[in-house]
From TrEMBL:
Gene3D superfamilies: Apoptosis, Tumor Necrosis Factor Receptor Associated Protein 2, Chain A (2.60.210.10)
Annotated protein name in UniProt: MATH domain-containing protein
Membrane spanning residue stretches: none
Annotated ranges, domain MATH: 56-172
């Protein structure tokens, strides 16, 4: 297979129809060069999308009246936008545990999307003592992800609740955003 056939094969693999006439005119060669340049630019764009730098942000919220959250109830922080995407922290009281979640509130039902991120959630005492967990998750719809049993409810009240307030921090790194 000579270089022309290899070139034709690569273009065919990329979905570009080529002519098979080996006695190509100067115009045909120029069109092949133009197509090659277009494919190179497309490959650069694809590589740039796949290698976008991580986007980082922190959400911090102090929840009040935490001891009044009944079993099965929850509270959410106000929504904040980071990189054009709405986020909030969600806590709940369920089965004698504190649940802690990071929620993506993006609403785009007609267009598929996904956001791959890693994050660390921590509850923080004013003295600096903290309890944290980390994970990775790919959000693909308006949803939350986290830990339904982050900490036993009584331990949270004893160790981290001050004046009925609880501070929760989310350190988030968005690794990839895809909107199709």
């Amino acid at each position: 297979m000579d270089w022309k056939d290899e070139f034709r094969q690569k273009l065919a693999d990329a979905g570009v129809e080529m002519f098979q006439n080996s006695s190509s005119s100067h115009g045909d060669i120029q069109s092949m060069k133009n197509e090659l340049e277009r494919l190179k630019e497309r490959a650069k764009l694809k590589q740039a999308i796949n290698q976008q730098p991580p986007m980082e942000f922190t959400l911090k919220y102090t929840f009040t009246d935490v001891s009044k959250i009944g079993d099965g109830d929850y509270k959410e922080s106000p929504m904040e936008y980071h990189f054009g995407i709405p986020w909030c922290i969600h806590i709940d009281h369920r089965n004698d545990h504190l649940g802690v979640y990071l929620q993506c509130k993006k609403h785009q039902p007609d267009t598929p999307w996904s956001i791959k991120c890693s994050y660390q959630m921590e509850i923080v005492h004013p003295s600096g003592r903290h309890n944290s967990k980390q994970t990775e998750y790919v959000y693909q719809e308006k949803t939350g992800w986290g830990w339904p049993e982050f900490l036993k409810w009584e331990e949270m009240k004893k160790e981290y609740l001050v004046d009925d307030q609880l501070t929760v921090v989310a350190h988030v790194t968005i690794q990839k955003i895809i909107e199709i």
